[in-house]
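Schema walk-through. Below, the input block comes first and the output block second. Nothing else is stored per chain. Lengths vary across the set, and this one has 127 residues.
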Amino acid sequence: QVQLVESGGGLVQAGGSLRLSCAASGRTISTQAMGWFRQAPGKEREFVAAITWSGTYTYYADSVKGRFTISRDNAKNTVYLQMNSLKPEDTAIYYCAADRIAFRAVVTTTPGAYDYWGQGTEVTVSS
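--- output ---
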């Protein structure tokens, strides 16, 4: 069983930056692709970014491409999401998740493919 804990959210002005962290415990996540999702009030959960188990490949939603960077440190069992040039529309609760399949060669954007989820960290971007 994997427990995921997100941190790093907060209130920031438009154009600012935040770095989210997702720390895993219980077992290693080094064999799992990891994803970040977000959910804004009144909206469905949406894909933000994902990274393969090795860190070789990353994938981003069009809305964050060029502004957000996902990375991982398998030695620390932690995944990160660096968010730059934040916009008010980035306001949401951000969740990290671990893929259910080990050593998946590609990343998936489908929430159903992820078995383990954190409790989320809130990001608010003011205009």
